[in-house]
Amino acid sequence: MEKKQSITVLLGLILTLMTGCVYGQDRVINQNQLPKTAKNFLFANFRGIPVASAIEDREIYGVDDYKVRLGNGMKIEFDSRGNWKEVDGEHQKVPNGFVPAAIRNYIAKNFPNTYITKIEKGRWKYKADLSNGLDLEFDRNGNFSKIDD
User: What is the pTM (predicted TM-score) of this model?
Assistant: First the structure.
């Protein structure tokens, strides 16, 4: 009896994993299929730069995030609602209109001849990579925390 239960549990686990593999896949989408918030972000900050590709990352529970690559090589990652999570300029200057003013001001004051090449927005902090190679961390209000090693 215990052997049958163990086999049933094992089969259930295998089925669950297989279902996750089937539904947890990336899918190429048209830029018009991005959430409205993401489309507005692209229009406001990257106007005139074509979208080279857009990927929808699906998990068992639904869309996890969207990954967009622009024609100039920049990569942008959005959450399932279309809010930006990461903008990677691939060593190019990232537009700073969406960067919190406190972060922009801190960098302008303390690192005047640099620019942001990548910025990530986490739940509790921001991380900004600068053109001089430094990686800075800020709290969620944009207050400087530390230089990341």
Answer: 0.82
